[in-house]
Design goal:
The structure holds 2 protein chains of 2 kinds.
Chain A: H1 2-19, H2 22-46, E1 54-62, E2 67-73, H3 75-94, H4 107-126, H5 130-139, H6 141-150, H7 156-187, H8 195-199, H9 205-222, H10 230-238, H11 241-251, H12 253-266, H13 268-294, H14 299-319, H15 323-354, H16 365-368, H17 370-384, H18 390-405, H19 407-432, H20 448-466, H21 469-486
Antiparallel strand pairs in A: 1-2
Helix pairs in contact in A: 1-2, 1-4, 2-3, 2-4, 3-4, 3-11, 3-15, 3-20, 3-21, 4-5, 4-6, 5-7, 6-7, 7-9, 7-10, 9-12, 9-13, 10-14, 11-15, 12-13, 12-21, 13-14, 13-19, 14-15, 14-18, 14-19, 15-17, 15-18, 15-20, 15-21, 17-19, 17-20, 18-19, 18-20
Chain B: H1 15-33, H2 36-64, E1 75-78, E2 83-86, H3 87-107, H4 130-137, H5 145-161, H6 165-183, H7 190-222, H8 227-236, H9 241-259, H10 267-274, H11 277-302, H12 307-330, H13 335-354, H14 370-392, E3 395-397, E4 400-401, H15 411-414, H16 416-430, H17 436-450, H18 454-480, E5 489-490, H19 495-513, H20 516-525
Antiparallel strand pairs in B: 1-2, 3-4, 3-5
Classes of the chains: A mainly alpha, B mainly alpha.
């Protein structure tokens, strides 16, 4: 029941927020987000570390199509749920004043859509029925569309449309595969969309490959990966940083989450078949994302494109099929969520002060606003994989796994560390150091609200940088199950 | 010549049909004898009462029908085997009647245009003459639209239930003729409306000719017009194959014209745009439902054994309809034309379901059947369409309805509720989950894929992406574009239109979230009797 409560709380919250008087909307919205956070923590306490789906509930939803309302979490799902419930209140606090600014659609709408997005995302991470997953997967797009289109900089309507079309295209391609699974299960006896039923079917190789392509294209657009990433930078540039956090740190995780859950879980043979292509695409994403990020003048585009590089790492970790790789990838999903959220939010506060997102027009912020600069530096270093901050652990694991897979893959991936240090530090140097820009008032430092918003993220980065064990304990049983389904033992490397 | 035998008439089973026909005739009498002042009220009450009575009849008959001829299907052959009252017929009757009730409510709307309906004051008055001015000044309106509509409803019910080619042709004509007339009765932009009516009539008459010619050829092939005998002849491979093939092709032209499939779609945008919006709403929803019922009966019952000759044709037409409809819709600047081309695309999607024909023994237990999928899709499409056109009739400026899409900019701020409802209908047509359109798409794609028509499904998915763009574009205009000039204004409707929109939206939501009951109903409707 706790998972249903977890999904219903923000959903009801979204409706209530939409109909209370505008003055109350923010408080009510935040209240529901906080309640969801509590529910998420309660769910985590009920979860016992180990393999398999837990906290499950199953009800028939559409009988004639074999669809169930089926929920459950494993290690992967739990971490994604926790990441979501933690980030949403932070995003709401960060958007407290910004969403009400002239030109934006109003705080009420921002809070309501954010809660709706949270509800759908939580449903995505807990669904154990393929069609339920698909339904909420697509349903996340509507709140996201209105968040991008309603808040942010000029040209956001266009960006929102581009985002939606890309995602819908991916979703519809996936629909073909989802229906394919239905037909496969009908041919095998009785139609069912339950993941557990589908996993028990032995799908022949050719069918698996076709189904894999459909799923993978959708998840690659979502994640995003080269060459279907072009919506990403446009979206992060135009949307508010709060929306970007929701998109990049939570929604995009659905892509890699789906690869683990569906590509590996249901179509293991095809996943192995596709590995060479996927690994190459992942490497291209890693290098290309970092290179393009270096050349950006717009901070928000830059941060968006670094995520392309990071998602490349995650996908690489997933598709080298080893215990290190998978563990690293899942850890990366969590760490990237925290580190990128920090980067986006600091950048948002900075842009709010300078009135521009152009790196060229900034400079000397460090002297006037040391705290802001400090957060910015930590965020950048985390993205660059500095030891002591949590992304380092995951990046190391993935790179080790990459070398195990093939030395060439490892050596290409390792290049990204150099590039990441370059884009992070160069961005810091150009914006924070140097002389003040002529004609620009000194930048005010972060106030207490803003520090309060960023502090938990910073703490998490440091904590999991030195002590990642709690996360690893949750991840390991899942990785074990996942690799077993692909037919690979715990020790790594193909048998 | 065999001796003429007087057919027995199954009054109970045919009750819904007879009530609608009776009310239509009564409406004509009302026009002739009642004074102008009371006609509006009388006609509306009569039409609504008749439709509700017929709907009750459908429910009663549906509860009563027995298994036919020891087969899997249930139903009776009425009037000497010319009308098949079976599960699919009853489902379609119910659907047509429900859509017609919504249609009457839209027809009766008088709040939007200063106290008069959307129909011309005096259709016979030439536009721009003194006679027209006089009729407008006198606040006249045509109340013949109600009996005309009831005749169309009667045709829509007879058409899919017809069990021989002649009855089917009669149904086709009864459904078409009133619609030609209704299309030309717009109060505003009358020339456009009359042009639409003339185009529709000429092309429609032409396609009826094709249908009739096809029927004649099939008679030449099978020596009979009723579907069971044709099926028998096809099965036993007697008769001239050329006659069969040409006949099938010509019949298809007539039927595919009615559903607006490519390459017979040319009339749709003009007629949808020119006809008064309430007529467009009713026609778009009702005709498609009725004609797909007829298509399925003809292809499944009469030509089921000849599947391999017509299936490739439908594959191609389905794919063409989806792509041409979606691609041309993107280029439109008028919302009614856009919805018209979108209906062409939907025709393609529904045809995807039609080609998924599988015999009952090929289906797994609990697997969805083709008839079930198509019937469900028709229900989702019908209510979303009638709701969407009802919303179109609300957005107005000084010259009547504002149908230019760029004039809809800023509607999201001007009138959040109307914009939200319209966006919801568009999302349903795009097939976004949690709307009825998604479940409909899922159902028709599933049956097509199960029947091995994967190229069509892949094409349908790609076409859906194109179609998604076109709906999202309208939503973007409403919400994120700056208004042009004063922006549109939304007229407050009376309870009639408001009810139609609210019910349409509610059904679209319910069929998206809890489609089980209607899917089950479509499953209970089962197969056609043969």
């Amino acid at each position: 029941m706790i998972l249903t409560v977890l999904i219903l709380l923000p959903l009801v919250g979204a409706l209530v927020t939409a109909f209370v008087p505008a003055a109350l909307a923010r408080l009510v919205g935040l209240g529901f987000a906080a309640a969801t956070l509590v529910a998420g923590i309660v769910a985590a306490t009920q979860y016992t570390v180990g393999g398999g789906m837990q906290l499950t509930e199953t009800r028939t939803w559409i009988e004639s199509l074999g669809v169930h309302y089926a929920l459950g979490v494993d290690g992967l799902g739990l971490l994604m749920v926790l990441l979501t419930v933690v980030l949403v209140p932070i995003v709401l606090l960060a958007g407290w004043h910004e969403s009400d600014a002239p030109g934006n659609n109003g705080a009420k709408s921002f809070f309501a859509w954010t809660l709706a997005l949270e509800a759908m995302s939580l449903a995505v991470f807990t669904a154990t029925d393929v069609l339920l997953f698909y339904v909420v997967f697509e349903a996340t797009l509507i709140p996201a569309y209105f968040l991008i289109g309603g808040f942010g900089r000029a040209g956001r309507g266009r960006a929102a449309t581009k985002f939606l079309i890309y995602q819908l295209a991916g979703g519809l391609i996936m629909l073909a595969s989802v229906i394919g699974l239905y037909v496969v299960s009908a041919d095998a006896g009785s139609p069912s969309f339950l993941i557990s039923d589908l996993a028990a079917i032995d799908i022949d190789e050719t069918t698996q490959r076709w189904l894999f392509v459909g799923f993978f294209v959708a998840f690659a657009i979502k994640a995003p990966m080269f060459p279907v990433h072009t919506w990403l930078a446009d979206t992060t540039e135009k949307a508010t940083t709060g929306t970007s956090v929701l998109l990049v740190c939570i929604l995009d995780k659905i892509g890699t989450f789906g690869m683990l859950r569906f590509c590996l879980g249901l179509l293991p043979d095809a996943s192995q078949w596709a590995t060479p292509v996927v690994v190459v695409l992942a490497l291209v994403s890693i290098i290309y994302g970092a290179l393009v990020a270096i050349g950006q003048d717009d901070i928000l585009r830059l941060i968006g494109l670094t995520s392309l590089s990071h998602f490349g790492f995650i996908v690489l970790g997933i598709f080298v099929f080893s215990s290190n790789g998978s563990t690293g990838a899942i850890l990366y999903m969590v760490n990237h969520g925290i580190a990128t959220a920090l980067m986006f939010l600091v950048a948002g506060f900075l842009i709010h002060r300078t009135g521009t997102a152009s790196i060229r027009e900034m400079g000397g912020v460090e002297k006037a606003a040391p705290v802001l600069a400090g957060f910015f530096l930590v965020g950048g270093l985390a993205a660059a994989g500095l030891p002591g901050l949590s992304p380092f652990v995951s990046e190391m694991l993935v790179i080790i796994a990459a070398f195990d897979h093939h030395w060439l893959v490892g050596s290409v991936a390792v290049l990204a560390i150099v590039l990441a240090a370059f884009y992070a530090l160069w961005m810091y140097q150009r914006t924070m150091t140097g002389p003040d820009r002529v004609g620009m008032a000194p930048v005010a430092d972060l106030d207490r609200r803003e520090v309060g918003i960023l502090a938990p993220l910073l703490l998490a980065l440091v904590l999991f940088g030195f002590y990642p064990m709690p996360l690893l304990d949750v991840i390991n049983p899942f990785v074990h199950d996942s690799l077993a389904s692909v037919g690979i033992g715990q020790e790594g490397g193909p048998q | 010549m065999t001796e003429f035998v007087k057919p027995s008439i199954e009054y109970f089973e045919l009750w819904p049909l007879l009530v609608v026909f009776g009310v239509a005739c009564l409406g004509v009498v009302v026009e002739a004898f009642l004074p102008r002042s009371v006609r509006y009220t009388t006609q509306v009450v009569l039409a609504l009462g008749g439709l509700v009575l017929a709907l009750v009849g459908v429910v009663l008959v549906a509860q009563d029908v027995q298994t036919y001829d020891d087969g899997a299907a249930r139903g009776v052959l009425a009037v000497g085997g010319t009308i098949a009252v079976d599960g699919p017929s009853l489902f379609i009757w119910g659907l047509v009647l429900a859509l017609a009730i919504a249609g009457v409510l839209l027809f009766a709307e008088r709040h939007l245009d200063g106290g008069v309906s959307a129909f011309a004051g005096q259709a016979a008055a030439v536009p721009g003459t003194d006679a027209e001015t006089a009729s407008i000044a006198a606040n006249r309106e045509h109340t013949e639209v109600y009996p005309l509509m009831m005749f169309a409803v009667f045709g829509m019910m007879l058409f899919p239930a017809a069990n021989d080619l002649l009855t089917m042709f009669v149904g086709l004509e009864i459904l078409s003729l009133p619609l030609y007339l209704l299309s030309g009765l717009a109060r505003r932009r009358r020339l456009l409306s009359q042009e639409a009516a003339l185009k529709y009539f000429l092309l429609g008459a032409f396609s009826s000719g094709f249908f009739l010619y096809g029927a004649a050829l099939l008679y030449g092939f099978a020596g009979s017009l009723d579907f069971a005998s044709i099926n028998e002849a096809v099965r036993n491979d007697v008769g001239n194959q050329a006659l069969l093939l040409i006949g099938t092709g010509l019949l298809s032209v007539g039927l595919l014209f009615k559903v607006g499939a490519v390459p017979f779609q040319a009339w749709t945008p003009d007629v949808y745009q020119g006809a008064p919006t309430p007529v467009t709403a009713f026609m778009a929803a009702g005709t498609k439902v009725a004609a797909f019922g007829a298509i399925m009966r003809l292809f499944y019952v009469a030509l089921g054994a000849d599947r391999w000759s017509w299936q490739p044709m439908l594959w191609i037409i389905a794919v063409l309809s989806m792509f041409v409809g979606a691609a041309l819709a993107i280029t439109q600047t008028d919302i009614k034309r856009l919805l018209a081309y979108s209906s062409v695309a939907h025709t393609g999607f529904i045809l995807t379901g039609v080609i998924g024909l599988q015999a009952a023994d090929q289906l797994a237990v609990g697997e969805i059947s083709s008839v079930q999928a198509v019937l469900f899709y028709l229900a989702t499409y019908g209510f979303a369409t009638i709701g969407a056109f009802a919303v179109v009739s609300l957005v107005r400026d000084g010259g009547g309805e504002t149908t230019a899409i760029d004039r809809w900019a800023g509607l999201g701020k001007e009138s959040p509720v109307v914009a939200a409802v319209f966006a919801f209908f568009l999302l349903a047509m795009a097939g976004i989950p949690l709307t009825s359109g998604f479940v409909g798409k899922l159902a028709v794609f599933s049956v097509a894929l199960a029947a091995g028509a994967w190229p069509v499904v892949v094409a349908a998915v790609l076409a859906s992406i194109v179609a998604a763009y076109l709906y999202v574009r309208v939503i973007k205009v409403m919400y994120f574009d700056a208004p042009v000039g004063d922006g549109p204004s939304v007229a407050y409707p009376s309870v009639l239109t408001a009810t139609t929109i609210a019910v349409g939206a509610a059904i679209t939501l319910v069929l998206g979230v809890l489609p089980g009951p209607v899917l089950d109903l479509a499953a209970v409707a089962g197969e056609f009797i043969r």
